[in-house]
Design brief:
Strand order of the largest sheet: 2-1-3-4
Number of helices: 6
Structural class: alpha/beta
Number of strands: 4
Distance between the termini: 11 Å
Radius of gyration: 14 Å
Largest sheet: 4 strands, parallel
Shape: globular
Order of helices and strands: EHEHHEHEHH
């Protein structure tokens, strides 16, 4: 089983959106049994909170099913457990090092790297542009699924 953990700052917008988009892509490909897909934060400020309402609206608009979500922070154990730890931006990468240490096993990447795009996933928390974030996430998840 391929274990994938998506990471963003608070785990209420981009990383859970990526989790649910990836789950949908995997289901559409008939590969649900091959993957364990989750998401987490590098911060503690949103722990326990559900998906941010505009993120829910965007997923609903795009026909992406989702369930109740409780934000959580990544742990050192997660680094050992997951095969891929996929961050939304460079800030997530920096903070991740403080929480789990150096990526000695080569598990950590940026989502858009999978699509050969050298920029961060748009952050709707600051811009309010959930469409841009969704499109970045979809592009990265499609490329990741194709690669694995």
């Amino acid at each position: 089983m391929t274990k994938v953990l998506f990471i963003c700052h608070g785990n209420i917008c981009r990383s859970p959106m990526a989790e649910f988009v990836m789950k949908q892509l995997v289901a559409e490909a008939g590969r649900e049994q091959e993957f364990q897909i989750e998401s987490a934060a590098v911060s503690t400020e949103e722990i326990g909170n559900d998906l941010y309402p505009p993120a829910k609206r965007k997923l609903t608009e795009k026909g992406v099913p989702f369930t109740r979500h409780a934000a959580r922070q990544i742990t050192r154990e997660d680094y050992q457990c997951f095969d891929y730890i996929i961050c939304m931006d460079h800030s997530n990468l920096r903070l991740l090092r403080y929480l789990v240490g150096e990526d000695t096993l080569g598990k950590v990447s940026l989502l858009l790297e999978w699509a050969d795009v050298s920029r961060d996933v748009a952050d709707p928390w600051y811009t309010g542009d959930f469409e841009a974030a969704y499109q970045d996430i979809l592009q990265g998840c499609q490329a990741f699924l194709k690669a694995v």
